[in-house]
Amino acid sequence: MVPRGRWGRLAMGAAPWASAQGLPLAPCLTLRSRQWQLAAVRLSRLFRHIRPWPPEQVTTIAPGEVDPREAGLRREDVEAIWRAVVHLYQGGLHPAVALCLRRRGLVVLDRAIGHARGNAPDDPPDAERVLATPNTLFNLFSASKAVTAMMIHLLDERGLVHLDDPVAEFIPEFGRHGKGWITLRHLLTHRAGIPAMPPHEDPLRLLAEPDRLFALLCECTPIKPFGRHLGYHAVTGGAILGEVVRRVTGKDLRALLHESVLAPLGMQHFNYGVRPEEVHLVARNAATGPTAPPPYSWMLRRALGVDLARAVEISNHPAFLTAVVPSGNIIGTANEASRFFQLLLNDGCLDGVRIFERRTVRRAIAEQTYLEVDSIMALPVRYGMGFMLGRRHLSPFGPDTPHAFGHLGFTATVVYADRERDISVALLTSGKPFITPGQLRWLAVLETIARRCKQAR
């Protein structure tokens, strides 16, 4: 068997080699093919790529896109943005990519490219391929933190909590081991000093037993003085905030989000996890690109508690897809994610329905960290209370986006809004590369959006 794709073509180089040696072609082709096949297997473990299909065969456009001129854009602007997405897909790191872009509240792009299932690097050649569409569900991963944060801000708006209340006021057992004065604000701004998951624990078991996870967090000791050090809380902060919601309201986050946001706005999905019968509707994630080398692999394990391959495996497991994971499993379409951020861009009101007070939204996205170096990510980051904030240079939302707010998600997912450009964006992907030159194509999409959607305010 000759490997498919580029390695298959390399294997066919056995023919001229055999001729030069004066040897029969068939045995040598078999020998060389096997050598190439073994080489391909070894290299594929280091450079995991999908097979990109012709874009016209795997692109789906939602019927609701408006004429770009209605949103102050030109047709060539929209096409340039989509070409950047196609270029991203053709890089071979993402089985599926979905983009929804609103400008002035109007949907100018709502498209998907690739396969939701069946075209991952480890999928067999005869695997059933399911086309990704604008209705395909994607996991927002850490971008879910922005949604969880807004649920806490909503409780503050209703007078049920205050952001500077100690967590132990609602959950007395959390105050053990020096954590008695950790506040909700500390958790929302990644200053609680407990960024790491409990060691030596099976993440899937903790998903199935959330009470055990919270009990472990209650017994942990801060690794840094809370309030004084910035360190990204990948999973822990959300778990604690979710328990605060449950203690205060008697409901889990899934119920609170549905009754407070989704039902009033008529949104079908965009909640924590999905029902068991909907698991097959979620785009399957794939580990792609080169294996993360140290020290990046250490950073990833420190933040998530597992390596990248295991994190991807967990992300596809039904236990994860049906659980409530406050820090990482809001699941919905790109259109729904863009619509949520349009709600925030509109200061809490959408389609005539007010969900949040204006001051609630403005406070949530107010800067809290001023480019301090995050000790977990080893980068300077601007944080609001639950949000990452843009900047003029090296922004997570493209160049010259100091007024943008949103959140990144594992590893090439981003949702955000930009007040200057009057846009709300959801760029969702199912490939999970870590650090690779191919990620430059992802950055190029954000750069193209920023450049083509000129500042409107």
Write a brief caption for the model.
The protein is α+β, with helices and mostly antiparallel strands.
Q: How many helices? A: 17
CATH class of the largest domain: Alpha Beta
Low-confidence stretches: 1-31
CATH superfamily of the largest domain: DD-peptidase/beta-lactamase superfamily
Q: What overall geometry do the principal axes of the alpha carbons give?
A: globular
| CATH topology-level fold name of the largest domain | Beta-lactamase
| Share of residues in helices | 25-40%
Helix/strand/pairing category: alpha+beta
Task: Examine the secondary-structure arrangement and name the CATH architecture of the largest domain.
Answer: 3-Layer(aba) Sandwich
Largest sheet: 8 strands, antiparallel
Written account of the structure:
By secondary structure, this protein is an alpha+beta fold. The protein has 2 domains: 67-141 and 270-452, DD-peptidase/beta-lactamase superfamily (Beta-lactamase, 3-Layer(aba) Sandwich), CATH 3.40.710.10; 146-263, no CATH class. It has 17 helices and 15 strands. It has helices at 5-11, 14-21, 25-46, 55-58, 75-90, 144-157, 184-188, 203-208, 210-219, 236-249, 253-265, 296-304, 308-315, 318-321, 334-345, 358-364, 439-452; strands at residues 59-61, 96-103, 106-117, 130-131, 138-139, 271-272, 330-332, 349-350, 353-354, 372-374, 379-381, 388-389, 404-409, 413-418, 423-429. The strands form 4 sheets. Strands 1, 2, 3, 4, 12, 13, 14 and 15 form an 8-stranded antiparallel β-sheet that branches. A hairpin with a 3-residue loop joins strand 13 and strand 14. The longest helix has 22 residues, at 25-46.
